[in-house]
C-alpha cells in the first residue's frame, strides 16, 4: 500500500521550467513502476512519462520528448518530472501514478495499468 502526494506545480511563462515531485508513503515504493499523466480542461487524461522499478527503463509521450525528464530516488521515496521549454499546451493538472504489479523492466503507458494515484497538481503556462 502506498499514498502519493504531488508538489511543485505553479504558474510559469512559456519557455520556463518546473520540477514536479511525487512523494510516496509506505515501504514498497522501490517495487513500483511510476508514471505521470495530465488532464487539460475538456480533454481526456493522457500519458506523459513513466519509469520502471529500477529506473533503467523510461517512456515518454511524443508531445514531451526532449523537453521532460522523469527520474526517481528510491532512497527518498520520490519520483520527479523535470519540465523544460514549457508551452501553453502543457497547461493541465498533472497526476502521479503507481503500478504495484508490473514487470521490473516495464514502464507502463496506459491509464488502466496504474492502481495508485495522487491528488494532482496544477501546472499553468502563460503565452
Topology (elements, then pairings):
Layout: E1 3-7, E2 10-13, E3 18-25, E4 33-39, E5 46-51, E6 58-60, E7 68-73, E8 78-83, E9 92-99, E10 116-117, E11 121-126
Parallel strand pairs: 2-11
Antiparallel strand pairs: 1-3, 3-8, 4-5, 4-9, 5-6, 7-8, 9-10, 9-11
Order of helices and strands: EEEEEEEEEEE
Q: Pairing-aware structural class of the strands and helices?
A: mainly beta
What proportion of the residues form beta strands (DSSP E)?
over 45%
Mean pLDDT: 93
Supply the number of helical segments: 0
Cα distance spanning the termini:
40 Å
Kindly state the percentage of residues in helix: under 10%
Question: How many strands, what sense, and barrel or not for the largest sheet?
Answer: 7 strands, mixed
Radius of gyration: 13 Å
Question: Which residue ranges are poorly predicted, with pLDDT under 50 across at least 5 consecutive positions?
Answer: none
Give the overall shape. globular
Number of strands: 11
Q: What this model shows, in words?
A:
- The chain is built from no helices and eleven strands.
- It has strands at residues 3-7, 10-13, 18-25, 33-39, 46-51, 58-60, 68-73, 78-83, 92-99, 116-117, 121-126.
- The chain is 0% helix and 48% strand.
- The protein has 127 residues and is mostly beta strands.
- A hairpin with a 6-residue loop joins strand 4 (33-39) and strand 5 (46-51).
Amino acid at each position: 500500500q502506498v499514498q502519493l502526494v504531488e508538489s511543485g506545480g505553479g504558474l510559469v511563462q512559456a519557455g520556463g521550467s518546473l520540477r514536479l515531485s511525487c512523494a510516496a508513503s509506505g515501504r514498497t515504493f522501490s517495487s513500483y513502476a511510476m508514471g505521470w499523466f495530465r488532464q487539460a480542461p475538456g480533454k481526456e487524461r493522457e500519458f506523459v512519462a513513466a519509469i520502471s522499478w529500477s529506473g533503467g527503463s523510461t517512456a515518454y509521450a511524443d508531445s514531451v520528448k526532449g523537453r521532460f525528464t522523469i527520474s526517481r530516488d528510491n532512497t527518498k521515496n520520490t519520483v520527479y518530472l523535470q519540465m523544460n521549454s514549457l508551452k501553453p499546451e502543457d497547461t493541465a493538472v498533472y497526476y502521479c501514478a503507481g503500478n504495484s504489479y508490473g514487470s521490473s523492466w516495464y514502464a507502463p503507458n496506459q491509464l488502466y495499468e496504474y492502481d495508485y494515484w495522487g491528488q494532482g497538481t496544477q501546472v499553468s503556462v502563460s503565452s
